[in-house]
Amino acid sequence: MQAIYDFLYEPGIPLKAMGIVIGLWLVLSHCFALLRPDLVKAQLKGFPRNERIGIPLVIIGFAWAFILWSCMDLGEFFKIEKPVQMIIVGVCVGVIIYVKEFIAVRALGFLMILAAAPILDSAFLKEPQSRLLLVAFAYAIAVKGMFWVGMPYLMRDQINWLIADKKRYVVGAGAGLIYGVVVLICAILWW
Length: 191
Description:
By secondary structure, the protein is mainly alpha-helical. It has nine helices and no strands.
């Protein structure tokens, strides 16, 4: 557990590596979305209520929270480390059993919130200013993740809006592709 925590937070992932990973992920995923629109649209449409994807995402999210809580410096709260670990495990099981509605959306939102911190850490007080591309991305996924956890039907509505018009879908996938290319170029050349 400590090795995973150290990799993500202490000292964290270098800016260049983070930029390359995020840039490649954006480029590859959005290229695939442009090349295989029918497949991607069908998968997007079914994602919000997909329990087969949602349950593993919930487990990954709560495992991440468990590692974070277990390895971070709790200061004067070290006495409650074990009870909170049990609460995290219990809530994970409870979510899997009782929160069936939009479980994939909620889990993805939770993971997006957790992912924002390592991204922000990698860009913290670094040069050049183009690092703000990662900062903007991190805040965007964190805010979107909070909305998806609290109001998961928004993802369903956003997907339906996006795939309802071919032009909107192409513009959305193209924008993600362009952003990924810009991040990747900045990461390779300047970070």
